[in-house]
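Q: I'm writing up a methods section and want to include an example of the input and output format. Could you take the sequence below and give the corresponding predicted C-alpha coordinates, formatted cleanly so I can copy it straight into the document?
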Amino acid sequence: MQWAKHFVLVFFFLAIIFGVPITQAILDIADEESPQILELFSQVPTEEHLRQFESDLEEYSFFEENIRPVYQLVRYFVRRGLGHKVLLGREGWYFYHPGVKYFTQPYYQDVAALMPEGGDPLEVICDFAKQMRERGIQVVVVPIPGKASIYPDKLSALVDPGQPVHAHTRRFTKELRDAGVEVIDIHDVFLSRRAEADRLNRPLYMRTDTHWTGHGVILAAEAIAGRIKKEFWYREMEPPPRDRYERIKVMVERRGDIPKMTKIPMQERLFSPELVDAYQVMEKKSRELYQDDPQSPVLLLGDSFSRVFQTDAPKSAGVIANLAYELQMPITTIINDGGASTLVRQQLARNTKILRGKRLIIWEFVERDIRFGMRGWQPIFYQDAPPSSADED
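A: Here is the clean output for your methods example:
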Protein backbone atom coordinates (compact mmCIF):
# COMPACT_ATOMS: atom_id res chain seq x y z
CA MET A 1 0.00 0.00 0.00
CA GLN A 2 2.94 2.29 0.75
CA TRP A 3 4.25 1.91 -2.81
CA ALA A 4 0.88 3.10 -4.16
CA LYS A 5 1.14 6.37 -2.18
CA HIS A 6 4.64 6.88 -3.49
CA PHE A 7 3.46 6.21 -7.02
CA VAL A 8 0.63 8.75 -6.74
CA LEU A 9 3.02 11.34 -5.27
CA VAL A 10 5.55 10.82 -8.06
CA PHE A 11 2.78 10.92 -10.67
CA PHE A 12 1.47 14.29 -9.50
CA PHE A 13 5.01 15.67 -9.20
CA LEU A 14 5.84 14.68 -12.79
CA ALA A 15 2.46 15.97 -13.98
CA ILE A 16 3.26 19.39 -12.56
CA ILE A 17 6.82 19.40 -13.90
CA PHE A 18 5.92 18.33 -17.43
CA GLY A 19 2.35 19.60 -17.57
CA VAL A 20 3.27 23.29 -17.55
CA PRO A 21 5.65 23.25 -20.57
CA ILE A 22 3.43 20.81 -22.50
CA THR A 23 0.35 22.97 -21.91
CA GLN A 24 2.29 26.10 -22.89
CA ALA A 25 3.48 24.41 -26.09
CA ILE A 26 -0.07 23.41 -26.99
CA LEU A 27 -1.28 26.98 -26.42
CA ASP A 28 1.57 28.35 -28.55
CA ILE A 29 0.68 25.99 -31.42
CA ALA A 30 -3.00 26.91 -31.08
CA ASP A 31 -1.97 30.56 -31.53
CA GLU A 32 0.00 29.51 -34.63
CA GLU A 33 3.29 30.29 -32.95
CA SER A 34 6.41 28.19 -32.50
CA PRO A 35 6.48 26.53 -29.05
CA GLN A 36 8.54 28.71 -26.77
CA ILE A 37 10.44 25.72 -25.36
CA LEU A 38 12.18 25.31 -28.75
CA GLU A 39 14.02 28.58 -28.17
CA LEU A 40 16.09 26.71 -25.58
CA PHE A 41 17.71 24.73 -28.38
CA SER A 42 17.95 27.51 -30.96
CA GLN A 43 21.32 28.79 -29.70
CA VAL A 44 24.36 27.61 -27.79
CA PRO A 45 23.26 27.53 -24.11
CA THR A 46 25.33 30.44 -22.83
CA GLU A 47 24.58 32.20 -19.55
CA GLU A 48 23.16 35.22 -21.40
CA HIS A 49 20.95 33.02 -23.61
CA LEU A 50 19.58 31.08 -20.64
CA ARG A 51 18.81 34.30 -18.76
CA GLN A 52 16.99 35.69 -21.78
CA PHE A 53 15.03 32.44 -22.14
CA GLU A 54 14.03 32.59 -18.48
CA SER A 55 12.97 36.22 -18.88
CA ASP A 56 10.85 35.36 -21.95
CA LEU A 57 9.20 32.51 -20.07
CA GLU A 58 8.18 34.87 -17.27
CA GLU A 59 6.86 37.47 -19.71
CA TYR A 60 4.89 35.27 -22.11
CA SER A 61 3.88 32.26 -20.03
CA PHE A 62 0.13 31.57 -19.85
CA PHE A 63 0.53 30.49 -16.22
CA GLU A 64 2.55 33.60 -15.40
CA GLU A 65 -0.10 35.88 -16.88
CA ASN A 66 -3.19 34.15 -15.47
CA ILE A 67 -2.32 32.26 -12.31
CA ARG A 68 0.43 34.25 -10.62
CA PRO A 69 -1.65 37.48 -10.28
CA VAL A 70 -4.35 35.56 -8.44
CA TYR A 71 -1.77 33.93 -6.18
CA GLN A 72 -0.11 37.29 -5.48
CA LEU A 73 -3.44 38.91 -4.60
CA VAL A 74 -4.34 36.09 -2.22
CA ARG A 75 -0.90 36.20 -0.62
CA TYR A 76 -1.19 39.96 -0.12
CA PHE A 77 -4.55 39.73 1.67
CA VAL A 78 -3.57 36.69 3.76
CA ARG A 79 0.01 37.54 4.71
CA ARG A 80 0.64 41.04 3.30
CA GLY A 81 3.12 39.37 0.97
CA LEU A 82 4.73 41.84 -1.45
CA GLY A 83 7.12 39.64 -3.44
CA HIS A 84 10.90 39.31 -3.36
CA LYS A 85 11.67 42.89 -4.46
CA VAL A 86 9.69 44.78 -1.82
CA LEU A 87 9.93 45.18 1.94
CA LEU A 88 7.08 46.67 3.96
CA GLY A 89 8.39 49.15 6.49
CA ARG A 90 6.71 51.13 9.25
CA GLU A 91 4.11 53.91 8.99
CA GLY A 92 3.32 53.22 5.35
CA TRP A 93 6.92 53.23 4.10
CA TYR A 94 8.01 50.75 1.42
CA PHE A 95 11.58 49.73 0.61
CA TYR A 96 13.33 48.19 -2.37
CA HIS A 97 14.84 44.90 -1.22
CA PRO A 98 18.16 45.08 -3.16
CA GLY A 99 18.79 48.48 -1.58
CA VAL A 100 18.51 46.93 1.89
CA LYS A 101 20.48 43.83 0.91
CA TYR A 102 23.33 46.07 -0.24
CA PHE A 103 24.17 47.27 3.25
CA THR A 104 23.11 44.17 5.24
CA GLN A 105 25.40 41.80 3.32
CA PRO A 106 29.23 41.95 3.53
CA TYR A 107 31.24 44.52 1.61
CA TYR A 108 31.81 43.26 -1.92
CA GLN A 109 35.62 43.24 -1.59
CA ASP A 110 35.45 41.00 1.48
CA VAL A 111 33.66 38.11 -0.25
CA ALA A 112 34.76 37.04 -3.73
CA ALA A 113 31.28 35.81 -4.64
CA LEU A 114 29.88 39.32 -4.16
CA MET A 115 32.15 40.95 -6.75
CA PRO A 116 29.91 42.67 -9.36
CA GLU A 117 29.82 41.53 -12.95
CA GLY A 118 32.56 42.96 -15.15
CA GLY A 119 35.03 43.99 -12.49
CA ASP A 120 35.78 45.91 -9.32
CA PRO A 121 33.78 49.19 -9.31
CA LEU A 122 36.67 50.95 -7.59
CA GLU A 123 39.08 50.05 -10.40
CA VAL A 124 36.54 50.88 -13.12
CA ILE A 125 35.80 54.32 -11.66
CA CYS A 126 39.49 55.10 -11.21
CA ASP A 127 40.19 54.04 -14.80
CA PHE A 128 37.36 56.22 -16.13
CA ALA A 129 38.57 59.21 -14.09
CA LYS A 130 42.11 58.67 -15.42
CA GLN A 131 40.95 58.53 -19.05
CA MET A 132 38.92 61.70 -18.64
CA ARG A 133 41.75 63.46 -16.80
CA GLU A 134 44.03 62.74 -19.76
CA ARG A 135 41.52 64.71 -21.83
CA GLY A 136 41.54 67.64 -19.42
CA ILE A 137 38.19 66.70 -17.86
CA GLN A 138 37.75 66.22 -14.12
CA VAL A 139 35.40 63.52 -12.78
CA VAL A 140 33.46 63.95 -9.53
CA VAL A 141 31.60 60.89 -8.24
CA VAL A 142 28.27 61.30 -6.42
CA PRO A 143 26.94 58.12 -4.77
CA ILE A 144 23.29 58.70 -3.86
CA PRO A 145 22.09 57.14 -0.60
CA GLY A 146 19.26 54.65 -0.87
CA LYS A 147 16.15 55.37 1.15
CA ALA A 148 16.99 52.80 3.82
CA SER A 149 20.35 54.48 4.47
CA ILE A 150 18.65 57.72 5.50
CA TYR A 151 15.45 56.27 6.99
CA PRO A 152 16.48 52.94 8.57
CA ASP A 153 14.07 53.59 11.44
CA LYS A 154 11.17 53.46 8.96
CA LEU A 155 12.31 49.96 8.07
CA SER A 156 12.75 48.72 11.62
CA ALA A 157 11.90 50.20 15.02
CA LEU A 158 15.14 48.71 16.37
CA VAL A 159 17.26 51.27 14.51
CA ASP A 160 17.97 54.75 15.89
CA PRO A 161 17.05 57.47 13.35
CA GLY A 162 20.42 59.12 13.90
CA GLN A 163 22.42 55.93 13.52
CA PRO A 164 24.30 55.77 10.19
CA VAL A 165 24.01 52.44 8.39
CA HIS A 166 25.96 53.25 5.23
CA ALA A 167 29.27 51.70 6.31
CA HIS A 168 29.86 50.10 2.90
CA THR A 169 29.40 53.37 1.01
CA ARG A 170 31.56 55.23 3.51
CA ARG A 171 34.33 52.67 2.99
CA PHE A 172 33.90 52.84 -0.78
CA THR A 173 34.04 56.63 -0.70
CA LYS A 174 37.25 56.58 1.35
CA GLU A 175 38.85 54.12 -1.08
CA LEU A 176 37.95 56.36 -4.01
CA ARG A 177 39.40 59.43 -2.31
CA ASP A 178 42.56 57.54 -1.36
CA ALA A 179 42.89 56.64 -5.05
CA GLY A 180 42.64 60.30 -6.03
CA VAL A 181 38.99 60.40 -7.17
CA GLU A 182 36.87 63.25 -5.84
CA VAL A 183 33.55 62.36 -4.19
CA ILE A 184 30.59 64.46 -3.05
CA ASP A 185 29.08 62.88 0.07
CA ILE A 186 25.30 63.24 -0.17
CA HIS A 187 24.89 60.91 2.84
CA ASP A 188 26.35 63.52 5.19
CA VAL A 189 24.21 66.24 3.62
CA PHE A 190 20.99 64.27 4.08
CA LEU A 191 21.80 62.96 7.55
CA SER A 192 22.65 66.46 8.77
CA ARG A 193 19.38 67.87 7.39
CA ARG A 194 16.99 65.03 8.21
CA ALA A 195 16.01 66.27 11.69
CA GLU A 196 15.00 69.65 10.27
CA ALA A 197 13.14 67.95 7.40
CA ASP A 198 11.24 65.77 9.88
CA ARG A 199 10.30 68.79 11.96
CA LEU A 200 8.92 70.56 8.87
CA ASN A 201 7.22 67.36 7.64
CA ARG A 202 9.26 67.50 4.44
CA PRO A 203 10.68 63.99 3.99
CA LEU A 204 13.71 63.56 1.76
CA TYR A 205 12.34 60.41 0.12
CA MET A 206 8.91 59.33 -1.02
CA ARG A 207 7.19 56.76 1.19
CA THR A 208 6.15 54.45 -1.64
CA ASP A 209 8.95 55.14 -4.10
CA THR A 210 12.68 54.37 -4.24
CA HIS A 211 13.50 57.99 -5.09
CA TRP A 212 13.87 61.28 -3.30
CA THR A 213 11.28 64.04 -2.96
CA GLY A 214 11.62 67.53 -4.38
CA HIS A 215 13.17 68.60 -1.07
CA GLY A 216 15.82 65.90 -1.38
CA VAL A 217 16.43 66.97 -4.97
CA ILE A 218 17.17 70.55 -3.91
CA LEU A 219 19.59 69.52 -1.15
CA ALA A 220 21.50 67.30 -3.57
CA ALA A 221 21.54 69.99 -6.28
CA GLU A 222 22.85 72.57 -3.80
CA ALA A 223 25.65 70.23 -2.71
CA ILE A 224 26.74 69.46 -6.28
CA ALA A 225 26.46 73.09 -7.37
CA GLY A 226 28.53 74.20 -4.39
CA ARG A 227 31.37 72.01 -5.64
CA ILE A 228 31.09 73.22 -9.25
CA LYS A 229 31.11 76.88 -8.21
CA LYS A 230 34.61 76.40 -6.83
CA GLU A 231 35.95 75.73 -10.33
CA PHE A 232 38.12 78.54 -11.72
CA TRP A 233 36.51 78.32 -15.16
CA TYR A 234 33.03 78.75 -13.61
CA ARG A 235 34.04 81.85 -11.66
CA GLU A 236 35.67 83.34 -14.75
CA MET A 237 32.79 82.71 -17.18
CA GLU A 238 31.83 85.66 -19.36
CA PRO A 239 29.19 86.78 -19.01
CA PRO A 240 28.75 85.49 -15.45
CA PRO A 241 25.92 82.92 -15.19
CA ARG A 242 23.00 84.67 -13.50
CA ASP A 243 19.32 85.55 -13.83
CA ARG A 244 18.62 82.93 -16.49
CA TYR A 245 16.32 80.54 -14.62
CA GLU A 246 13.59 80.74 -12.04
CA ARG A 247 12.05 77.99 -9.91
CA ILE A 248 8.46 77.39 -8.82
CA LYS A 249 6.98 74.90 -6.41
CA VAL A 250 4.44 72.44 -7.85
CA MET A 251 2.51 69.51 -6.39
CA VAL A 252 2.74 66.10 -8.04
CA GLU A 253 0.46 63.12 -7.49
CA ARG A 254 2.69 60.10 -7.85
CA ARG A 255 2.14 56.35 -7.66
CA GLY A 256 5.31 54.92 -6.19
CA ASP A 257 7.47 52.54 -8.17
CA ILE A 258 7.85 50.10 -5.26
CA PRO A 259 4.20 48.89 -5.19
CA LYS A 260 4.44 48.46 -8.98
CA MET A 261 7.27 45.97 -8.41
CA THR A 262 4.90 43.68 -6.51
CA LYS A 263 2.84 43.16 -9.71
CA ILE A 264 -0.18 42.69 -7.45
CA PRO A 265 -3.46 43.30 -9.33
CA MET A 266 -5.78 46.18 -8.43
CA GLN A 267 -2.91 48.42 -7.33
CA GLU A 268 -4.98 51.56 -7.84
CA ARG A 269 -7.26 50.40 -5.02
CA LEU A 270 -4.66 48.83 -2.75
CA PHE A 271 -1.95 51.53 -2.85
CA SER A 272 -2.85 55.20 -2.60
CA PRO A 273 -0.97 57.80 -4.66
CA GLU A 274 1.38 60.15 -2.87
CA LEU A 275 1.34 63.96 -3.06
CA VAL A 276 4.87 65.25 -3.43
CA ASP A 277 6.42 68.71 -3.64
CA ALA A 278 8.59 69.30 -6.70
CA TYR A 279 10.47 72.38 -7.88
CA GLN A 280 10.16 73.16 -11.56
CA VAL A 281 12.77 75.22 -13.39
CA MET A 282 12.09 77.44 -16.39
CA GLU A 283 13.69 80.20 -18.45
CA LYS A 284 12.86 83.61 -17.06
CA LYS A 285 12.46 85.31 -20.42
CA SER A 286 10.78 82.67 -22.55
CA ARG A 287 8.93 80.87 -19.72
CA GLU A 288 9.95 77.60 -21.34
CA LEU A 289 10.84 74.62 -19.17
CA TYR A 290 14.52 73.92 -18.65
CA GLN A 291 16.35 72.03 -21.43
CA ASP A 292 19.88 70.63 -21.59
CA ASP A 293 22.60 72.28 -23.64
CA PRO A 294 25.09 69.93 -25.42
CA GLN A 295 27.65 72.78 -25.40
CA SER A 296 27.72 73.06 -21.61
CA PRO A 297 31.09 72.54 -19.88
CA VAL A 298 29.38 70.18 -17.39
CA LEU A 299 28.27 66.64 -18.23
CA LEU A 300 26.16 64.66 -15.77
CA LEU A 301 26.02 60.86 -16.02
CA GLY A 302 23.16 59.45 -13.97
CA ASP A 303 20.39 56.97 -13.32
CA SER A 304 16.72 57.20 -12.35
CA PHE A 305 17.57 59.55 -9.47
CA SER A 306 18.49 62.08 -12.16
CA ARG A 307 15.45 61.18 -14.26
CA VAL A 308 12.73 61.41 -11.59
CA PHE A 309 10.68 64.65 -11.89
CA GLN A 310 12.93 65.59 -14.81
CA THR A 311 11.47 63.67 -17.75
CA ASP A 312 8.37 62.42 -15.93
CA ALA A 313 5.79 64.61 -14.20
CA PRO A 314 5.99 67.50 -13.68
CA LYS A 315 9.10 67.65 -15.97
CA SER A 316 12.16 69.88 -15.57
CA ALA A 317 11.96 69.52 -11.79
CA GLY A 318 14.62 66.88 -11.17
CA VAL A 319 18.16 67.23 -9.91
CA ILE A 320 19.30 68.15 -13.44
CA ALA A 321 17.07 71.21 -13.75
CA ASN A 322 17.65 72.22 -10.14
CA LEU A 323 21.41 71.93 -10.57
CA ALA A 324 21.09 74.20 -13.62
CA TYR A 325 19.06 76.63 -11.47
CA GLU A 326 21.73 76.68 -8.76
CA LEU A 327 24.42 77.30 -11.39
CA GLN A 328 22.21 79.55 -13.55
CA MET A 329 23.56 77.69 -16.56
CA PRO A 330 22.40 74.56 -18.44
CA ILE A 331 24.26 71.24 -18.36
CA THR A 332 24.61 68.18 -20.60
CA THR A 333 23.30 64.80 -19.45
CA ILE A 334 23.33 61.08 -20.24
CA ILE A 335 20.72 59.25 -18.15
CA ASN A 336 19.81 55.55 -17.98
CA ASP A 337 17.47 54.04 -15.39
CA GLY A 338 19.50 51.52 -13.40
CA GLY A 339 22.38 51.83 -15.85
CA ALA A 340 24.68 54.43 -14.31
CA SER A 341 27.34 51.81 -13.54
CA THR A 342 28.02 50.81 -17.17
CA LEU A 343 25.30 51.73 -19.66
CA VAL A 344 25.78 55.51 -19.46
CA ARG A 345 29.49 55.08 -20.12
CA GLN A 346 28.71 52.84 -23.08
CA GLN A 347 26.43 55.57 -24.45
CA LEU A 348 29.23 58.07 -23.97
CA ALA A 349 31.69 55.78 -25.77
CA ARG A 350 29.32 55.66 -28.76
CA ASN A 351 29.18 59.45 -28.90
CA THR A 352 32.51 60.84 -27.68
CA LYS A 353 31.79 64.11 -29.50
CA ILE A 354 29.77 65.05 -26.45
CA LEU A 355 33.06 65.45 -24.57
CA ARG A 356 34.02 68.46 -26.68
CA GLY A 357 34.27 71.53 -24.47
CA LYS A 358 33.63 69.62 -21.25
CA ARG A 359 35.43 70.67 -18.09
CA LEU A 360 33.73 68.51 -15.50
CA ILE A 361 31.81 65.22 -15.36
CA ILE A 362 29.43 64.59 -12.47
CA TRP A 363 28.88 60.82 -12.20
CA GLU A 364 25.77 60.08 -10.15
CA PHE A 365 24.66 56.57 -9.20
CA VAL A 366 22.63 55.13 -6.33
CA GLU A 367 24.80 53.35 -3.76
CA ARG A 368 23.22 49.89 -4.22
CA ASP A 369 24.58 49.86 -7.77
CA ILE A 370 28.05 49.39 -6.32
CA ARG A 371 26.84 45.79 -5.97
CA PHE A 372 23.79 45.55 -8.19
CA GLY A 373 24.31 47.92 -11.12
CA MET A 374 22.77 46.80 -14.42
CA ARG A 375 25.48 45.01 -16.47
CA GLY A 376 27.78 45.40 -13.49
CA TRP A 377 30.92 47.50 -13.91
CA GLN A 378 32.38 46.94 -17.35
CA PRO A 379 35.70 48.64 -18.17
CA ILE A 380 35.42 50.85 -21.27
CA PHE A 381 38.21 52.43 -23.30
CA TYR A 382 37.41 55.74 -24.99
CA GLN A 383 39.13 56.01 -28.35
CA ASP A 384 39.46 59.07 -30.54
CA ALA A 385 37.81 61.36 -28.01
CA PRO A 386 37.90 64.98 -29.19
CA PRO A 387 39.95 67.39 -27.06
CA SER A 388 38.13 69.30 -24.37
CA SER A 389 38.25 73.07 -24.15
CA ALA A 390 40.72 72.67 -21.29
CA ASP A 391 43.11 70.93 -23.73
CA GLU A 392 42.78 73.80 -26.16
CA ASP A 393 43.50 76.52 -23.59
